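Lecture 7, part 2: worked example. A protein chain together with zinc ion.
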Amino acid sequence: MSRCGLFAALVPFAAFAATPSEITTHYTDVAKRLTDGALADQHSLDRLEFLCDRIGNRISGSPALDQALAFAVDQMKSAGLRNVHTQPVKVPHWVRGTESAVMMAPVERKLPMLGLGNSVGTPDGGITADVVVVANFEQLSALLPDRVRGKIVLFDAPYQGYGRTVTYRIIGASRAAAAGAAAVLVRSITPFGLRTPHTGTLVYTQGVPQIPAAAVTIEDAEAIHRLTAQGVRVTVQLKMQAHFDPDADSANVIGEIPGSEKPEEVVVAGGHLDSWDVGQGAQDDGSGIMATLEAAGLIQRLGLKPRRTIRVVFWVNEENGGAGGRAYRDALGDQGLHNHVAAIEMDGGAEKPIGFGLGEGGHPRMPGSDTPPAGAPPSKAIEFLRQIGSLLTPIGANQIQNNGGGSDIEPLMAAGIPGLGELSSGAHYFDWHHTEADTFDKVNPQDFRESVAAMSVMMYVLADMPERLSDLQ
Ligand SMILES: [Zn+2]
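Predicted complex, written out as C-alpha cells:
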C-alpha cells in the first residue's frame, strides 16, 4: 500500500496509515505493559486447571464438552468480554468404546493401544491375524497381494516431523485396505515414547473398504518389526467397539472486545474447545484457548481500546471433523469475511513461545510441518509482522516465519484471510499430543504467561495498527 509516507509522517497514526518501522516505535510502551501484565499474573492458569481437573477431556458430542461450553461462556463473561454467545454447530459423535490389542504369538502380551479417531470397530470377536510390517507406503506397494490380504498391516514409520509422518495415521488405513488388509496398526506419531499410544483422526478414502485402525507405541512397533525382520510370525488380536452415534448439537463460543473506531473490522483469535477422549486436553488445546482468553482479558483490564474488534473464538470439533471452523466461516457471509483483517490460532501448546507463523491464503501449515522453500520473498505483511514481533524480543518470541496457521482458521485462510499460528518451542508438545499424558502438569506457568504476552501483543497491535494486515499480502 502507498497510503503511508508523507501524510503519516505529518500526522502519525491519526490517519490510519503507518510504515512498518512506525509500528515498533508506536507500540513499544503498550507492548511492555501487556508483557509485564501477563508475566506478573498469578491466576492466569486457574481457568485451565478447572477445565482440566473438573471437566476433563471433551470429545465432540460428549457430556463433558457440553460442560466445557457452559464453562467457557461464563469465563468469557468474567474476563470482561462483550457479546458473549454461542454459535450452533452440528458435530460428529465418535465413540471409542472398549478396545484392546493383544499379541498372541510368539509371546502373549497386551499392547497398549488407542483406536484412531473416526475408525470403525472390529466384529465382536475381534480380528486376529498375522502382522505385516512396512516402514512406508512404497514398501506396502511392493508387497505381493497374498502377503497383505486378510492381514494386519503395521506402519512402523519413524517420526520425521509431525506434518510428514502423520500421513500414515491419516490415510494408512485406506492404503492398507486397498491392498486387502483386515486392520491397521500405526506406530504412534511422536518423537519420543514411554510406551504411550497416541490417538488422532484418520480419514477413510471413498470407495475403499473401511477397516479398523489403532495406534500402538513406538516400543511395540519396533519390537514387532524386529521379530518379523527375523522371520518370526507375529499374531495380534485387535478388538474395538468404535462407532458413531448420531451427530450432536454443539457450538463455537465467541466473545469480543468491540473496536473503538472500526468495530466492524475484526481480528479473530482462539483455538479449539474440544479435545481427544484421553488425558485432559491440557496442552491440546486447553492451553491455547485459555491463553487467548487471558490475553484478551488482559487488554480489557489495562483499559486498552483497540480500533478494531478483537474476537475470541473457542472453535469446536477441530480434532475429528473441523465443523466449528467451517461453521464460523460460513456464518460470516461475504461482507463479514471481508471485514476480517487477520486470524490467529494458538494450537501448538503453551510451551515457550518463539513467535508467529503466517500462512499464505489457502496454504495453512500444521505446527511441526516442513519449512517453506528457501528464498520465498517476504510479503509486505511479513515486514509488518516482523515489526510487531520485535515488540516481543524481551521474551524471545520475535520470530516471524513464512509458514503457519491452524485447522480452525483454515476455512478463513482458504478464503484469503491472513492466518497466523502462534509458535512455541515445541520441545515436548508431540511427546504428549493426543495421549493420556496431555494433562495440566505439563503446562509450565512461566511459559504459559509468556504465551499470554505474545498473544496479547499480536492481537492488540493487529487490531489497532493503521493498516489492515489483509491489505498487505
Ligand atoms: Zn489441537
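The radius of gyration is 23 Å. The pocket of zinc ion is lined by residues 272, 284-285, 318, 347 (CB under 6 Å). Keep this in mind for problem set question 3.
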